[in-house]
Design brief:
The protein is an alpha+beta fold. Helices cover 43% and strands 17% of the residues. It has 15 helices and eleven strands. Strands 6, 7, 8, 9 and 10 form a five-stranded antiparallel beta sheet that branches. A four-stranded antiparallel beta sheet has the order 1-2-4-3. Strands 5-11 form a two-stranded parallel sheet. Helix 8 (342-365) packs parallel to helix 13. It starts with a strand and ends in a 13-residue tail after the last helix.
């Protein structure tokens, strides 16, 4: 028998004191003792005949600890069931100070519950579907780009001096200014297309004018933000030996181009490129419609959301924005701009949690489900980033951890609810150009957070980038279980060779991911699976896998 006293009931916050009697804990210890005693071996006693009081003396503390943990878990589970509580996040469970064996155990349980979501208003949704037909010119342009990428290189005459657009292959040795070759600075047969700007500043310029077989020393300065810290900002020389100079043969758009790719005809290649462009356009059409749909839902519904979920959502958005800011040309200024917009991003996090709960409610009320087959496919896709044993462990983890499964399921579930709403809405079609569609997606008008107006922005022109980033952050409706994200990969792995690295230096870093990328597990019952089985873990929360 457990006593329960409610100590807080304010908004979505709840707190309880649970008292588990010493008698209950002792019962569990006795039951466990009966179970293990027959298996205990001790010198001087026949197997299974060790007296119970000796077993208790030896294993009592461990048995008591287990009994206490089980009692705590069961206590929290029955509290959730009796009070019909749906936790927004894992409840916090704490054993009150001063617990001693043989005494009653007092627990403090704190949690935030999911709000009662009002019946969603989804009967008068009006949406515009902007479609972009694929023009022949767009296919021709893609074809030309494609042909240019498939450049054929021909050996230049012996007297030919390399110019922009040529391909020069060199062996190289990089040295510090005192003539010592540095680690990773040596390589053979590196092909450089002059004018592409893939190497550190000043490198390609000094290769212009070389002839086949020539040896040349060039001097460069590594950029200040170069990933290999020991070279950043330092002067260095590279000794080059030119192995070949080639000029680009004119790329022809003909049947051979298609056949070199293993296709049957130029017609087939054009068909594939057209299909690719259509797919891009459909993606843009959907993004625009989805944003408009979420805007309408946000504008039509306002209810309190659990602060812990907003905090977790904001934390993820912020972590990503900070990571991005460090890759800007001026990280300090980028961070300052971010700080100025902190409140806006917090409102976006709140909007996303509210929309996530709303979409979850709509999905559940209308029988939208992710099938087991779809779930298996999601797990298989996600597992591809792992190898061997790690892959098995990942699959097992997802199958055993409801929170992890919920996170995987979330984006697909949200897409299915969005599709359900698209079918229900009154949709008008309008033909647009790709530019118009992209502008509509990027514009701040294409993004209002419902509960959040840009009043304070009206008199200061907002840089387009920040607006687009916000639109992006606002687009997802993510009430996802707050699991820790894999840390963003470092800009450049420490062990990349500086000269290869010369091939992708700081100037051209991989663009930081947009504020909140499309594929980042949004809405779903997100909170719900968490709620159904919020196992009261021991006070020390289990580490995420």
């Amino acid at each position: 028998t457990m006593q329960t006293v409610e100590t807080l009931n304010e908004g979505l916050k709840r707190a309880y004191t649970l008292t588990i009697t010493a008698k209950d804990i002792e019962k569990k210890v006795d039951a466990e003792l009966k179970r293990v005693a027959p298996q205990i071996r001790m010198p001087g006693f026949r197997p299974g005949k060790v007296p119970t009081n000796l077993v208790r003396k030896m294993h009592g503390p461990a048995l008591l600890q287990d009994a206490l943990n089980t009692s705590i878990q069961e206590g929290v589970q029955s509290l959730l069931a009796d009070k019909q509580l749906r936790p927004a996040m894992q409840p916090s469970v704490e054993l009150a100070d001063g617990y001693e064996p043989g005494k009653d155990a007092e627990l403090k349980v704190e949690l935030e519950v999911l709000p009662q979501v009002p019946a969603p208003a989804i009967d008068n949704l009006k949406l515009e579907r902007l479609t972009v037909p694929v023009a022949d010119e767009a296919v021709e342009e893609q074809l030309r780009k494609f042909a240019d990428q498939m450049k054929r290189w021909e050996d230049a005459k012996a007297t030919h001096k390399a110019k922009l657009g040529d391909q020069v292959t060199v062996d190289f040795v990089g040295k510090t200014m005192d003539g010592v070759a540095f680690e990773g600075g040596t390589g053979t047969d590196m092909a450089i297309e002059l004018g592409e700007g893939r190497l550190i500043p000043g490198f390609e310029d000094q290769v212009v004018g070389v002839k086949n077989g020539e040896e040349r020393q060039i001097k460069v300065t590594f950029p200040e933000d170069y990933p290999a810290k020991e070279l950043a900002g330092k002067d260095a020389t590279f000794d080059l030996t030119v192995k070949s100079v080639k000029t680009a043969a004119e790329s022809k758009i003909d049947e051979d181009l298609a056949k070199n790719l293993g296709l049957e005809s130029l017609e087939q290649l054009k068909g594939l490129l057209k299909g690719q462009i259509e797919q891009e356009h459909n993606g843009l059409t959907r993004t625009y419609m989805k944003r408009k749909l979420l805007d309408q839902l946000a504008a039509g519904h306002d209810f309190e959301v659990p602060p812990s979920m907003v905090e977790a959502e904001f934390g993820q958005i912020w972590q990503q924005l900070e990571h991005e800011a460090t890759h800007e040309a001026d990280p300090k200024a980028a961070m300052e701009e971010l700080e100025n917009d902190r409140d806006d991003y917090r409102k976006i996090a709140e909007r996303r949690v509210r929309l996530g709960l709303l979409l979850s409610e709509i999905g559940q009320a209308n029988g939208v489900e992710v099938t087991q087959q779809e779930m298996n496919r999601l797990i298989a896709q996600a597992a591809q980033q792992y190898r061997g044993e790690d892959q098995k462990r990942f699959i097992q983890y997802v199958q055993q951890e409801p929170m992890a499964a919920a996170q995987l399921r979330a984006p697909l579930y949200e897409d299915k609810v969005v599709d359900f709403l698209f079918d229900k809405a009154e949709v008008t079609d309008r033909v647009a150009t790709r530019e118009e569609l992209e502008a509509a997606i990027e514009s701040d008008d294409g993004f209002s957070t419902g509960t959040h107006t840009h009043d304070h922005d009206n008199h200061k022109p907002r840089p387009k980038k920040a607006a687009a980033k916000k639109a992006d952050a606002g687009e997802e409706a993510a009430a996802k279980p707050a699991a820790k994200k894999a840390p963003a990969k470092k800009a450049a792995a420490k062990d990349e060779a500086p000269a290869e690295e010369a091939a992708k230096p700081a100037a051209k870093k991989a663009p930081a991911k947009k504020a909140v990328a499309k594929d980042e597990a949004p809405a779903e019952e997100a909170a719900k699976p968490a709620a159904k089985k919020a196992p009261a873990k021991k006070p020390a929360a289990k580490k995420e896998g």
